[in-house]
């Protein structure tokens, strides 16, 4: 039986990658508690294509 709760899976996508002009995308999958953080997440994560830490925002 599945657990019931407020945790949902979200996808984080790099904001700087689109403007760089390089092919591909940098995305991470993580979970968040919808009750504690109802708005969209913003986290600094490593972008392996750009080889630096960039801000990743939650997409749909």
Can you put this structure into words, describing what you see?
It is elongated and about 45 Å long. The model has no long low-confidence stretch (mean pLDDT 90). The chain is built from 1 helix and 4 strands; from the N terminus they run βαβββ. The longest helix has 4 residues, at 17-20. With 60 residues, it is mainly beta. The chain has a domain at 1-36. The two termini are 27 Å apart. The chain has a 4-stranded antiparallel beta sheet with strand order 2-1-4-3, with no helix packed on it. A hairpin with a 4-residue loop joins strand 3 (42-47) and strand 4.
What brief labels describe this structure?
single chain; mainly beta; 48% strand
| C-alpha termini separation | 27 Å
- List the quaternary state of the chains: single chain
Strand order of the largest sheet: 2-1-4-3
Major beta-sheet overview: 4 strands, antiparallel
The fraction of residues in strands falls at over 45%
What's the overall average pLDDT, rounded? 90
Described by the principal axes of the CA atoms, the overall outline is elongated
In total, the number of strands is 4
Share of residues in helices = under 10%
User: Would you list the SSEs in sequence order as H and E?
Assistant: EHEEE
Computed over alpha carbons, the radius of gyration is 14 Å
Query: Number of DSSP helices?
Result: 1
Uncertain runs with pLDDT below 50, 5 residues or more? Answer: none
Structural class: mainly beta
